[in-house]
């Protein structure tokens, strides 16, 4: 399905019921709005894992502007602020009053931007594999996981060199600690619709433009931070730094052992269980 939001058509999909029978009444379930990473990928990276969440919530998958099946728009509008505002406008159009916004990787950057830019518009925020560690620390993790070659390619890639093929061959497989021959993982990657222009724009300018730190004190809703123990880009120390910088009592961190980048992919059972508990507490708090 597509919806026009201020002149751009955004693709979305919905899984699970919003209303379910509860005795003689209909009970409203929480709504999770899922924001994919990349940037420039699409919502298919969440499927089928987030389908498990339909036991306790309705899941709305959104392809962000410039990604997947949504309109491409243009580089001038591929910004963290515009993507965040798009999500709020999208929720307004569908009358989703207080969603749980879940973002993985760069989608978490968008979710975090929503949380401080529109603090009252969300019920809660889930950040999966979000905060990049210092360059030196990330390079150390790549070397630990893939040796000196991986470290060198990662350094050159982040320095802006044209090493895309080497990056995809050597470094990208190290994002995951699951066996590389996993058929489900291969199929999931093959399904993704990539907009390479968006991810190149991210590498060359957008990544450096992301700076949420001065705005974290504006966040007023609960934040669940999930991180893989062996994530080579969103490092554990960076996740801890984010939680420490958020307002006291507003966040919680769970580090999943043996997991790489993207914990819903890496450890789906544990990640969805943590999501279930968090959503239940958020809904209970909302009702008090």
From TrEMBL:
What top-tier enzyme class does this entry carry? hydrolase
GO aspect biological process, one term: proteolysis
Q: Does the keyword Protein transport apply?
A: no
Q: Which residues form the signal peptide?
A: none
Q: Which residues cross the membrane?
A: none
GO MF annotation terms:
aminopeptidase activity
List each copy of the AB hydrolase-1 domain by range: 30-267
The EC number(s) this enzyme carries: 3.4.11.5
Q: Could you tell me which InterPro entries the record lists for this protein?
A: AB_hydrolase_1, AB_hydrolase_fold, AB_hydrolase_sf, Peptidase_S33
One cellular component term (GO) for this entry is:
membrane
Keyword list, A-Z? Aminopeptidase, Hydrolase, Protease
Say yes or no: keyword Cytoplasm present.
no
Q: Which family does it belong to?
A: Belongs to the peptidase S33 family.
Name it: Proline iminopeptidase
């Amino acid at each position: 399905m597509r919806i026009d939001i201020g002149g751009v058509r955004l693709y979305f999909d919905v899984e699970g019921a919003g209303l379910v029978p509860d005795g003689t009444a209909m009970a409203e379930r929480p709504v999770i709005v899922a924001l994919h990473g990349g940037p420039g990928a699409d919502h298919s990276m969440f499927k089928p894992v987030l389908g498990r969440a339909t036991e306790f919530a309705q899941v709305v998958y959104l392809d962000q502007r410039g990604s997947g099946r949504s309109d491409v728009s243009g580089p001038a509008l591929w910004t963290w602020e515009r993507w965040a505002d798009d999500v709020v406008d999208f929720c307004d159009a569908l009358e989703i009053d207080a969603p749980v916004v879940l973002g993985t990787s760069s989608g978490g950057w968008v979710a975090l931007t929503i949380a401080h830019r529109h603090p009252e518009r969300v019920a809660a925020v889930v950040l999966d594999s979000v905060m990049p560690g210092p360059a030196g620390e990330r390079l150390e993790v790549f070397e630990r996981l893939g040796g000196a070659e991986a470290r060198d390619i990662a350094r050159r890639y982040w320095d802006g060199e044209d090493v895309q093929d080497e990056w995809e061959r050597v470094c990208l497989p190290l994002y995951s600690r699951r066996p590389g021959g996993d058929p489900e993982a291969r199929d999931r990657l093959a399904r993704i619709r990539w907009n390479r222009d968006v991810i190149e724009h991210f590498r060359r300018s957008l990544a450096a433009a992301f700076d949420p730190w001065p705005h974290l004190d504006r966040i007023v809703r609960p934040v669940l931070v999930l991180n893989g123990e062996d994530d080579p880009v969103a490092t554990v120390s960076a996740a801890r730094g984010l939680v420490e910088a958020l307002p006291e009592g507003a966040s919680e961190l769970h580090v999943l052992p043996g997991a790489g980048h993207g914990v819903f992919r890496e450890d789906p059972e544990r990640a969805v269980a943590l999501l279930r508990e968090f959503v239940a507490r958020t809904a209970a708090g909302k009702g008090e």
